Amino acid sequence: MVAFAPGRFIEPYVEFARKAFSREATYRFEVLTSIGSLVLRVYLLRSVWTALYAQNAAPADIPLHSMITYATVALLMSLILEVDGTRSIRDKIREGTIATDLMKPIDLPLYFFSEGFGQTMFHALTILPSLLLALLLVHIDVPSLATLAVFGSSFVLGYFVNFFLNFLMNSVAFWTLETFAIQLMVRWASDFLGGQILPLSFFPGALGWIVERLPFAAIYSTPLRIYIGELPQSAWPGALAAQALWLAIFAGLSVVVWRAASRRVVVQGG
What we know:
Elements: H1 6-24, H2 28-54, H3 64-81, H4 87-95, H5 98-102, H6 108-138, H7 145-171, H8 173-176, H9 180-193, H10 205-211, H11 221-228, H12 236-269
Helix pairs in contact: 1-6, 2-3, 2-6, 3-6, 3-11, 4-7, 7-11, 7-12
């Protein structure tokens, strides 16, 4: 009997992530232009929110400086969360290569995750100079180390919720072949109802209560509210628990859908 070696199991997926990182770093001019574009977007965000607050078209419970911080951090988060390594599921299905991939001695969902993670790590590195420029340009708030630690934990939970949400959307291609429409709708809902474009406090009354309890809030709104201090420390455990619950639900659904999709390929392939 061959003993199970965790290091040997993980090693190929680390290599997949490394190659994805290298591919993303190939076009250096594009990297520089993306950093410049990000700085310009940060400046425009500051200008827009300053104008809105001047016209009193903003939530009373979030000061202007906190709102600028919220919008800037949300923009930086989106550079990571919008990386979708599972998009290749749809491409492989349309090309017909998914059947041979399923026969390879690798865990295919873990392969898609490692690909996306490698791309994410590269985009995370490009955020660093952008963040420094943003600090100089708009002077965003930097919270305490304890808040940053909880924000980081919340962001990681949101990252995994987002991954499994993308995984589910792209796995629909096993039945429909095309997922562009559903991706567009879910991505719009995730950005708008999740707090990436506007804080959820903009939504009034019962509508605000509903959107705060949708799974999209676990991706953007929860870590952002922790970062700017809108969520008190006493509410942190409950907020993190809600994110963990949505993560468990989406992970469980992903397992069920992937098993059904794999059986579908086997049946069609004979």
